[in-house]
């Protein structure tokens, strides 16, 4: 099998390693079946998409909709590298799954309005599939309503007309969408269980997602939720596109 490619951009090692292990576990992949590139560490090398079964973009501390003057040089480089790669991915309708940061990157690339109107705090939320979501093969086997973990400053306010809305929450109207047949983005985290969220709360307690003094309470609250349905998306993605 050709490996899947995980494009990561978390500079903090604890969060980066937890994320990689989660994609292995919930995607049903062995280490040799998931190649990871940490985009924050160096420019993206030249890639041949035909070397891979599909591309996954993990979550990120970057906020795509921030004004350019508020972005670090590393963020600008990562966004530029991703945009050039997405030119090729979208043109080829090559299997793509962007988790959380995928909404900002794929959404902006395709003309969506991404801003801070519908940000959600760190915690568990109820996701509801649309009629199109119920029929989509990547969501096969999921309940029409399920719990997922979120934590995002920005979200999609307006989808482009050619996108297909697949899932929403009460506070965020666009939680998952599809472009063409094989390009997907989720706002919720399909790779995060309660333990994973606790790691991220601890890692990003000073990143502006929440007041730092609330970290311990947020970690306790995270353990009250159980998220099992979102992970089926990762297994469906790897099973559908492995080649």
TrEMBL record:
CDD domains referenced in this protein's UniProt entry, alphabetically: GATase1_1
Gene3D superfamilies assigned to the protein according to its UniProt record, in alphabetical order: 3.40.50.880
GO CC list: cytosol
Assigned keywords, A-Z: Glutamine amidotransferase
Domain Glutamine amidotransferase: 46-193
Pfam family, any one: GATase
PANTHER family according to UniProt: GLUTAMINE AMIDOTRANSFERASE YLR126C-RELATED
Protein name as annotated: Glutamine amidotransferase
Originating organism: Arthrobacter cavernae
């Amino acid at each position: 099998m050709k490996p899947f490619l995980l494009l990561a951009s978390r500079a903090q090692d604890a969060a980066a390693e937890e994320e990689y292990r989660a994609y292995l576990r919930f995607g049903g992949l062995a280490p040799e079946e998931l190649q990871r590139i940490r985009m924050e560490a160096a420019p993206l090398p030249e890639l041949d998409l035909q070397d891979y079964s599909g591309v996954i973009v993990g979550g990120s501390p970057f906020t795509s909709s921030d004004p350019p003057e508020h972005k670090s040089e590393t963020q600008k480089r990562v966004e530029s590298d991703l945009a050039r790669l997405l030119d090729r991915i979208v043109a080829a309708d090559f299997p793509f799954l962007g988790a959380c940061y995928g909404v900002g990157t794929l959404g902006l690339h395709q003309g969506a309005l991404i801003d801070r109107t519908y940000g959600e705090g760190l915690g568990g939320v109820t996701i509801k599939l649309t009629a199109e979501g119920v029929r989509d093969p990547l969501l096969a086997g999921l309940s029409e309503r399920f719990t997922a973990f979120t934590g995002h400053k920005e979200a999609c306010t307006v989808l482009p007309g050619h996108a297909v809305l697949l899932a929403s929450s009460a506070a965020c109207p666009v939680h998952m969408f599809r472009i063409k047949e094989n390009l997907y983005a989720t706002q919720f985290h399909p790779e995060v269980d309660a333990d994973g969220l606790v790691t991220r709360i601890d890692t990003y307690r000073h990143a502006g997602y929440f007041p730092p003094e609330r970290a311990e309470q947020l970690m306790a609250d995270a353990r009250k939720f159980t998220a099992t349905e979102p992970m089926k998306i990762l297994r469906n993605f790897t099973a559908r596109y492995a080649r």
